[in-house]
Design brief:
alpha/beta, Rossmann fold, 7-stranded mixed β-sheet, binds zinc ion
């Protein structure tokens, strides 16, 4: 069954294409693209297998260096220290980098092999396995929350945003990185875009739809970083 558009609440869709039996539609009101009807959960979690995290682990040194760059950018622009939560943290590279640069850093990840690696190899005690909502973090407890290439995987966006709002401290920052449907380098024929991944990437934002979703939950845009690659990197603030 079709779901309502999580950004504008409507059922006004045009069908764009079908890939691996999944129907990709665009909301004609707000322009969000999504798989609708959504794939069932057993299919969309099937991609979080051990191979998925091994691919990251092979690139560990390079990944750690890149993540340190992301943490330093956050420090230069917004928050120098405090509590950082990386949602969908994979093997914990962002958590490790944030911790090395002075944050009290936490992570949550669905894939058990990645979490084991974070704890056994990177010695991270604060990386937990499971859904964000199941961790019951304290309200208003994080100064920074990051979701790098995660939000497009999450089935219930409004439930996620409610939880992010609850656990973020007043004045805190959320950084979201996700593929950009509206980027000039994104192919016109969207069925050929490499980010189109049936059962895995459920939602496809442009900067307007991502900002509208966060505004619905009382965040405001603090900074939208210009990107050469077809990705969005937007920082949202919860009012103080
Ligand atoms: Zn919509």
């Amino acid at each position: 069954m079709q779901i309502a558009c999580p950004v504008c609440g409507g059922f006004n869709y045009e069908q764009l294409f079908i890939k691996r039996d999944e129907i990709f539609v665009r909301c004609t009101v707000c322009t969000l693209m999504l798989i609708n009807p959504p794939p069932d959960l057993s299919q969309s979690t099937a991609t979080y297998d051990e191979d998925y995290s091994h691919a990251y682990i092979r690139k560990a040194p390079k990944k750690l260096k890149r993540c340190a760059g992301w943490v330093r950018r956050m420090q230069r622009r917004f928050v120098r220290s405090g509590k950082w939560l990386d949602v969908g943290c994979s093997a914990g590279f962002v958590v490790k980098a944030a911790s090395d640069l002075g944050f009290d850093a936490y992570g949550v990840e669905l894939e058990p092999a990645a979490v084991r690696w974070a704890s056994d190899v990177l010695n991270l005690a604060n990386v937990r396995c499971g859904l964000l909502e199941a961790q019951r973090y304290d309200s208003a407890s994080f100064d920074v929350i990051s979701l790098y290439d995660v939000i497009e995987h999450v089935p219930d966006l409004n439930r996620l945003l409610d939880e992010l709002y609850r656990i973020l401290a007043p004045g805190g920052i959320i950084e979201i990185r996700t593929p950009d449907l509206g980027h000039w380098r994104t192919p016109r024929d969207l069925s050929k875009w490499k980010e189109v991944k049936p059962s895995e990437h459920l939602y496809y934002f442009n900067s307007a739809t991502l900002q509208k979703l966060f505004e619905l939950h009382d965040f405001r845009t603090a900074y939208a970083r210009p990107m050469f690659n077809p990705a969005l990197d937007i920082y949202f603030r919860k009012s103080a």
